[in-house]
Amino acid sequence: MEKRRSIRPKISVGRHAGAVSINVDSYRPLVGDELIDELIMLARELSGVRICHLNSTALGGGVAELLSRYLPLLQTFGLSADWRIIHGTREFFVVTKAFHNALQGAQYDLTEADRRIYLQANEESAKLIGREYDVYIVHDPQSAAIRHFIGENRAKWIWRCHIDSSSPDPNVSQFFKPFIEAYDALVFTMPEFLLPGLQIKRVAFIPPAIDPLATKNMEIPIELCKRAIADSGVDLTRPLLVQVSRFDPWKDPLGVIRAYRLVKEAVPGVQLALIGGMAGDDPEGWHILEQIEEEAANDRDLYVFTNLAGVGSMEVNVFQRGCDLIIQKSIREGFGLVVSEALWKEKPVIAGRAGGIPMQFPEGYHRYLVDTVEECADRVLHLLKRPGDRGDFGRAGREHVRKHFLFPRLLRNELRLIKDLLHPG
Ligand code: UDP
């Protein structure tokens, strides 16, 4: 990993195969036998069912992160599951990023050209998707219209929305509704995220989760983490703050820099590392990265680590473990996997009060959720001065994540839903 390196992303096309094999029993000490035994039963009941997960990028962002480990896990339980990635031009991803923002509440002037670009790409992708599956799980708006273009079909279709679509731009929402209503079930992270005014056949609320056994989250000795961070040029005799996320206005990296500068007035030695990349389906990131790089150009304590579609899992793990505090100052958020990732590593997190972030915070620690740059700086200063509080927060966070936000729970929710759809009653 190099400081301030950026490479343009390629768009991924076609089928993405999970090549990892996972030992199911390794989850038992983490989540208990009861849950794993139920998963084995559910998988037996669903034996022979062919599942297809569908999204628009193999690289960057939470959905790709999740699917890259989730598919191998489904396969480990003996289920037949594939991950398919839809085709798209840069023009298509510019439109879908605008739709994503509009469903998250940004105003948007929906044009005829937008509709045409979106629908043409979905129609083309629909022709390429195999019809052999029993259940299709389509993630997010990019490929939501595929179900419409497939037409009459005996499979069950689930639309899995990862974003907060509770107050969408009305035109974009109107445009999407018929496509979404064609699904057999919708899944949102939490009830508050539901797109208003939908005629729904069935809805489930299922938060995402992290894989504690993935390279991103596995145990690494702290001394090793510190050595690796020092090798990248950071001075670990001084405090280090870290934010890991795509370079996206909703993640507010420029707000994080402003908060860090306020902290620096009181703690001159403090350092900030912004670790991130661009999702393959997110063309907006390059502009933000340029602004961040301008900020970093004259500040030796501000590090920007970036790479094609995101810094690697091992490096993210090392920085999350080796820093003093994690910041995730999102303004709008879907779930925010990085929060669970950090808490799982017993790292305290100061985060924006947005989307699925508050539910990941352990009870008694919601005072570290912030709405402004000033609040963020204030909470960072508070925790930097109190190593004992940082330890307590971290331990409470890990236990909360263990109970609620690890992969086996997500798998149970999803398999129960599939079972109910295929075998109602
Ligand atoms: N991530 C990464 N490298 C980066 C930036 C992010 O591996 O340079 C990972 C991060 O660890 C997390 C995911 O990408 O697993 C981001 O998911 P999240 O839900 O936090 O945000 P999203 O990008 O989906 O909005």
Automatic annotation (TrEMBL):
Organism domain of life: Bacteria
Molecular function terms from GO: glycosyltransferase activity
Origin species: Candidatus Manganitrophus noduliformans
Protein name, as recorded: Glycosyltransferase
Chain ranges of the Trehalose synthase N-terminal domain: 53-194
Assembly with partners or alone: Homodimer.
A Gene Ontology biological process term: glucose metabolic process
Family: Belongs to the glycosyltransferase group 1 family. Glycosyltransferase 4 subfamily.
Domain Glycosyl transferase family: 230-399
Pfam family membership, one: Glycos_transf_1
Keywords in alphabetical order: Carbohydrate metabolism, Glucose metabolism, Glycosyltransferase, Transferase
Transmembrane residue ranges: none
